[in-house]
C-alpha cells in the first residue's frame, strides 16, 4: 500500500514537471504573419501616419510578413497582447526578423514594447509619444547606424520616465537579406544583443558604463547654486610683469626679404613671355564676334622657356629675414595666485536611488512606429519568450532556411557579376586584336568588311564568338588563296603549236586569274553576310 502511494506521488511529480517544461517551451507571444494582419493589428489613425501596410511575401519565398509598401512615409501599427508580460520575473527574450529588401539609407526598422493602456495611450492614436518600456531594432540615417536598445525606466524619487540608451550598440547589416534580432534580459541584469544568433553586445542594465544616462543616477551632483568667487584665478601661468622688451627687438621687421646675393641666371629670356597664343588653335567656324566677342587664341606654355632657365621679368627670390622676431611677448611665469580650475561643490542628488533590479513596467502591446525613406521593409516572426532555447529554435526553423537561400542567391549574383566583368574585359581584348588583324596589308581588300563585322560585334557582344569565327574564315580563305594561287599543273604542248595558240592560252590564264579573284570576293562576302556598309575605322 505504501509502495503504491509512493509510485503515485512520483508519477504526479513527473507529470507536473513535463507539463511545466511543455509550458515553458511555448512562446509567450508569437506572430508569424501567415494570416492577414487586418483585424488583429491596428494601424494608427493619426494624420501623420499615412504609410500603407501590406500583407506580402518575402521576395523569393512563400513566407509572408508585414510590409512597408511606400517610401518617404511615416508608419504606425500596434498589436495588443492577450496578457501583459512582466519584465521583472526571470529571463525575457525579445526577437523578430526584418528584411530590408531595398536597403536602408534613412529610416528605422525597430519595435516598441509598449506599456499598458492605462499609461495614457490608445491603439488608434498610436504615435511617437506612446509610452514604452523597451525600444529595440535597426535605425540608420546619415551618421546614425545602430541597432537601438533603449530602456524607459521610472525614477521612483521623481516619478519621471527616463530614456536610457545602450552605449556602443552594434551596427545594422548593410545587405538586403533577412536578419533576426534578439535581445535577452536576464534576472542578474545582464542584457545581450544578438544578430542572426551571434552575440554582438553584452551589457549590464545597471552599469553606468553600458547605458547613458545610467539607470541609477549619481549619488552627488554639482550644486547648481554654487558660484565661482570673483577673485578666483584659474590661470596657471601669467606674463612676467618684470620683463621688458629688448631695445633691438624690431616688431615691424618682415618675415621674408629679397635675397640680395641672388644673381640672374645666364640665358634668362627677359623678352620672352611665359605664355603664348596656341599657334595650332583656330577660330571656330560658328564663332560670332558680335555675340561671342572678339576671339582670342588659348594660351600655352612658351616652349622657349623650357629650353632656358626662365622667361619674363627676373626678380630676386625671397629668403627668411634673419632680423625677424615677430611681436614681442613677455615670458610666462608661474602664477602665484593660481587656485586651480574652479568646480562647484558636490551636494546629495535628490534624484538618487538604489536598485538591485530595474523596475520596468509590463509590456502590454507591440508597436512599430517608424519614418523611412525606403519601402520594402518586411517584418516577420515577432517573438516574446522566457527561454533562450525557444528563440533559438524559432531562428532555426523560420529564419535560418530563408537566410541560407538568400545567401546562396547573393553569392550566385556576385559570381555572375564578376564573370560578366571578366567577359567584358576579354571581349575588349578580342576586338582590339581583331582590329589589328584587319590592319594586315594582305587583307586590305577586305578591311571594310572586317571592320563592319567588328563594329557589329561591339554593338552586340553576345555575337563575339560568331564574329570571331567569320573573321578567321576570311583570314584563312585569303591566306590559302595567296599561298596556292598560280600553282597549276604543267600542260604539255607540241612544238607545232603556233604563236596564236600560245596567245590564246595566255588569255585563258588571265581569265582564270580573274575567276580566282572573283571567287575570293564571293567567299569573303559569304563570311561577312548581313554586314552593313563600310564605316570609318574606330579609334582604338
What topology emerges from the helices and strands here?
Elements: H1 2-25, E1 29-31, E2 42-43, E3 53-57, E4 64-68, E5 73-85, E6 92-100, E7 106-108, E8 111-114, E9 132-141, E10 144-154, E11 161-166, E12 178-185, E13 190-195, E14 198-204, E15 211-212, E16 220-222, E17 237-239, E18 256-258, E19 275-277, H2 289-292, E20 299-301, H3 303-307, E21 318-320, E22 332-334, E23 346-348, E24 363-372, E25 377-385, H4 388-438, H5 447-459, H6 464-484, H7 499-527
Antiparallel strand pairs: 1-25, 2-5, 3-4, 4-25, 5-24, 6-12, 6-25, 7-9, 8-9, 8-24, 9-10, 10-11, 11-15, 12-13, 13-14, 16-23, 17-22, 18-21, 19-20
Can you offer a commentary on this structure?
With 540 residues, the protein is of the alpha+beta class. It contains seven helices and 25 strands. Strands 2, 5, 7, 8, 9, 10, 11, 15 and 24 form a nine-stranded antiparallel sheet that branches. Strands 1, 3, 4, 6, 12, 13, 14 and 25 form an eight-stranded antiparallel sheet that branches. β12 and β13 form a beta hairpin. The model is unreliable at 13-24, 486-514 and 526-540 (pLDDT under 50).
Amino acid at each position: 500500500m505504501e509502495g503504491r502511494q509512493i509510485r503515485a506521488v512520483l508519477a504526479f511529480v513527473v507529470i507536473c514537471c513535463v507539463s511545466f517544461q511543455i509550458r515553458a517551451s511555448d512562446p509567450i507571444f508569437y506572430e508569424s504573419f501567415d494570416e492577414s494582419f487586418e483585424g488583429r493589428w491596428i494601424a494608427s489613425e493619426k494624420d501623420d501616419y499615412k504609410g500603407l501596410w501590406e500583407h506580402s511575401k518575402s521576395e523569393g519565398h512563400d513566407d509572408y510578413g508585414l510590409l512597408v509598401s511606400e517610401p518617404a512615409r511615416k508608419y504606425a501599427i500596434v498589436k495588443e497582447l492577450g496578457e501583459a508580460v512582466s519584465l521583472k520575473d526571470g529571463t525575457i527574450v525579445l526577437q523578430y526578423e526584418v528584411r530590408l529588401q531595398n536597403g536602408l539609407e534613412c529610416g528605422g526598422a525597430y519595435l516598441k514594447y509598449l506599456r499598458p493602456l492605462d499609461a495614457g495611450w490608445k491603439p488608434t492614436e498610436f504615435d511617437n509619444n506612446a509610452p514604452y518600456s523597451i525600444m529595440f531594432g535597426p535605425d540608420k540615417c546619415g551618421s546614425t547606424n545602430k541597432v537601438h536598445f533603449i530602456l524607459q525606466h521610472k525614477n521612483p524619487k521623481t516619478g519621471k520616465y527616463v530614456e536610457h540608451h545602450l552605449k556602443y550598440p552594434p551596427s545594422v547589416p548593410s545587405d538586403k537579406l533577412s536578419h533576426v534580432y534578439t535581445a535577452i534580459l536576464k534576472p542578474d541584469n545582464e542584457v545581450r544583443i544578438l544578430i542572426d544568433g551571434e552575440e554582438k553586445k553584452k551589457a549590464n542594465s545597471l552599469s553606468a558604463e553600458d547605458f547613458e544616462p545610467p539607470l541609477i543616477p549619481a549619488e552627488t551632483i554639482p550644486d547648481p547654486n554654487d558660484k565661482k568667487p570673483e577673485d578666483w584665478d584659474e590661470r596657471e601661468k601669467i606674463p612676467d610683469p618684470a620683463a621688458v622688451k629688448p631695445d633691438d627687438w624690431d616688431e615691424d621687421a618682415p618675415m621674408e626679404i629679397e635675397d640680395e646675393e641672388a644673381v640672374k641666371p645666364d640665358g634668362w629670356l627677359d623678352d620672352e613671355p611665359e605664355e603664348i597664343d596656341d599657334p595650332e588653335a583656330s577660330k571656330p567656324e560658328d564663332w560670332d564676334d558680335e555675340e561671342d566677342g572678339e576671339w582670342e587664341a588659348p594660351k600655352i606654355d612658351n616652349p622657349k622657356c623650357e629650353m632656358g632657365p626662365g622667361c619674363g621679368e627676373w626678380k630676386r627670390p625671397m629668403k627668411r629675414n634673419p632680423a625677424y622676431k615677430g611681436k614681442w611677448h613677455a615670458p610666462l611665469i608661474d602664477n602665484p595666485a593660481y587656485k586651480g580650475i574652479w568646480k562647484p561643490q558636490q551636494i546629495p542628488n535628490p534624484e538618487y536611488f538604489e536598485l538591485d533590479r530595474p523596475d520596468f513596467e509590463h509590456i502590454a502591446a507591440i508597436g512599430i512606429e517608424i519614418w523611412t525613406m525606403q519601402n520594402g521593409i518586411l517584418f516577420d516572426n515577432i517573438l516574446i519568450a522566457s527561454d533562450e532555447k525557444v528563440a533559438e529554435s524559432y531562428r532555426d526553423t523560420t529564419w535560418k532556411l530563408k537566410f541560407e537561400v538568400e545567401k546562396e542567391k547573393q553569392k550566385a549574383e556576385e559570381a555572375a557579376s564578376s564573370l560578366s566583368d571578366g567577359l567584358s574585359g576579354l571581349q575588349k581584348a578580342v576586338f582590339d586584336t581583331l582590329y589589328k588583324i584587319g590592319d594586315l596589308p594582305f587583307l586590305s581588300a577586305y578591311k571594310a568588311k572586317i571592320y563592319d563585322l567588328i563594329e557589329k560585334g561591339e554593338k552586340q557582344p553576345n555575337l563575339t564568338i560568331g564574329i570571331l569565327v567569320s573573321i578567321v574564315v576570311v583570314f584563312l580563305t585569303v591566306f590559302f588563296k595567296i599561298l596556292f594561287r598560280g600553282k597549276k599543273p604543267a600542260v604539255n604542248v607540241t612544238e607545232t603549236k603556233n604563236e596564236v595558240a600560245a596567245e590564246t592560252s595566255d588569255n585563258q590564264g588571265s581569265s582564270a586569274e580573274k575567276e580566282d579573284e572573283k571567287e575570293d570576293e564571293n567567299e569573303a562576302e559569304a563570311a561577312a553576310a548581313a554586314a552593313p556598309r563600310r564605316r570609318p575605322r574606330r579609334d582604338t
